[in-house]
Amino acid sequence: MVHNLIVIDTETGGFDCNTTCMVEIAMLAVQLHKRPFAHIDDKPLYVNVISTFHRVIWPDRAIGQDAAKINSFAGQHSNWATEATPMARAMWETEEWLRRRAEGSMFCGVNVAFDIGFLKSDLQRHKQALPDNIHYRTLELQGLCFPLFFEGVTEGTGLRHLRKWVGHEGEQEHTALADAMETVDVLQKYIRERVANG
Questions:
Q1: Count of domains for the chain
Q2: CB distance 135 to 145 below 8 Å
Q3: What's the whole-model pTM score?
């Protein structure tokens, strides 16, 4: 049996989707398998990324200084002015990708309610909408991994703590795409260990 997820991560120009907007979005269409579909280095794989959507977005609202410091947006995307997709176009492309790739999926992420709030707001402002072929249930990675923190396996439930648990050392590029890919790696290890431990 296969379950479908859309792993989502965004970088935003602030913390309130009513006054600012996304500046980057990444979504990975993922299949979760009950049995391993492959092995790498004798490790079973349960999570399969089947499609990736990523846009650096030219914002149509102000970017707050606090948010710019947190996501280091300009530093991560040195070619932002030439790479960025205008917001209206990015929202059209987002809706089209979701319509084609999200059939029967539910959203998953580290801060999924925040990300979906911005996604819905930005889509709506540009006369787009979340397709109705998505289950609006969510899988919040921090809640799923809380027992790891409670048992002392991790130092916290944020992505930086979970990436250490996966074995990724050092600082990573802080972008929506990098964070979405890290989320998939955490899911992979979480499922592998839960299956191994019964």
A1: 1
A2: no
A3: 0.90
